Amino acid sequence: MPVSDPKTKNGQSDRPWSVILITPDDPVAAISAAELIQFPNNAPILFVDESGIPAVTLEELQRLSPVGVERADGVQAFVIGAAASPNVLNQLQQIGLKTRSITARDNYALANQIDTIYGQIHSPDTGVPTMMNSVKNGNGIMDVFIGSTDAPLLMLPIAEWASHLPSGILWIDSKTDKLPRPTVEALSRRKGKAMIYVMGGSEQVSPALIKELSQYGSVARVTNDDQVLSNAPLTPNPVTVSVVFARMWDPTGLVGWNMVGAGHGFTIVNSNDWQSAVAAAILSSRGFHAALLLTDNAQHLSKPVADYLDLVRPTFTVTPAEGPYNRLYVIGDYSNISWMEQVEMNSSQEIANRHDAPNGSTYLSPP
User: Fold this and answer.
1) What is the 3-state secondary structure (H, E, C) of the chain?
2) Has residue 44 got a pLDDT over 80?
């Protein structure tokens, strides 16, 4: 990874500029924290307990030795929510890391705080995470993802996406059917230009809330419900939504991985192991930019994922040397993804002769 800022103190280009510390018991806070991974923080996520920093995490912090984010006054560690306990902060001080604690009264306010701080770091001109490489209305694209705190796993794919491109991550409470005030504050910062993507169906975010959200920008749902192919709405689940997001592409907000063929990276995690999915989000920020796929079976690939991997399987017409190939990052222990399930994944991505592939092709002999 090349050094992006000529004024950085980073003499080793593989060192992060900061790290993100979270606790492993709050998926909403953890997914919200993924907003901080992206440039210029380049920050991996590590886990701590309120009682202190586990030895394995402390060792990794010392190995990484983050160099500090110059745009954030040299902060080396963002400490989120319950992770910002006195014990953790004291240990960070002892090893000489400059920290910034981000805490709030609830997860809605915490997400707003994270969005505020990251927006000021990433895009000082707008104060919100903004993609300036594609200008819309003169201010860049301001993507926001919203999910329900009652179904946080539907938002897991956004941890990987926000690691890849600057995005806001906000929440609603489907029980009250009202927009929380902190979420309204975050949306209002976009001044009506938010590109809002709602993760889930009407059970998670009601049509009434969709109308309310439309006051702050355009709104689109990301769900497995295909309004053309499905006569009745389909119930979204983390597995199917992860596949939908890996396949989708919205050119308006530049949102979606658009992975419908070979030559891509995928991170595969058991949906019950959300901690691994969040920790692996850094793999989408650098390198092969992996989309997250979730499986809910520890022994065999869930059918939507197996079908999708078959779709993107690489094929050749003349020689396997043609490529391109896919890369799979399998995250978790064997209790979450068994050895045989990993073998199934590997076999599904072996490059195949297009002549023998289900979609068919004309076989070409070598010249």
Assistant:
1) CCCCCCCCCCCCCCCCCCEEEECCCCHHHHHHHHHHCCCCCCCCEEECECCECCHHHHHHHHHHCCCCEHHHCCECEEEEHHHCCHHHHHHHHHCCCCEEEECCCCHHHHHHHHHHHHHHHHCCCCCCCCECCCCCCCCCEEEEEEEECCCHHHHHHHHHHHHHCCCEEEEEECCCCECCHHHHHHHHCCCCCEEEEEECCCCCCCHHHHHHHHHHEEEEEECCCCCCCCCCCCCCCHHHHHHHHHHCCECCCCECCCCCCCCCEEEEEECCCHHHHHHHHHHHCCCCCCEEEEECCCCCCCHHHHHHHHHCCCEECCCHHHCCCCEEEECCCCCCCCHHHHHHHHHHCCCEECCCCCCCCCCCCCC
2) yes
The CA distances from residue 61 to 38, 93, 112, 182, in Å, are: 18, 12, 27, 32
164 touches 38 (CB < 8 A): yes
What predicted TM-score, i.e. pTM, was given to this entire model?
0.91
Give me the percent of the chain exceeding a pLDDT of 90.
80
Question: For residue range 86-144, what is the model confidence (pLDDT) as tens digits?
Answer: 999 999 999 999 999 999 999 999 999 999 999 999 999 889 999 875 444 445 899 99
CA–CA gap between residue 100 and residue 87 (Å, rounded): 15
Q: How far apart are the first and last CA of the chain?
A: 40
| Angle at CA of residue 21, ends 15 and 24, nearest 5° | 130
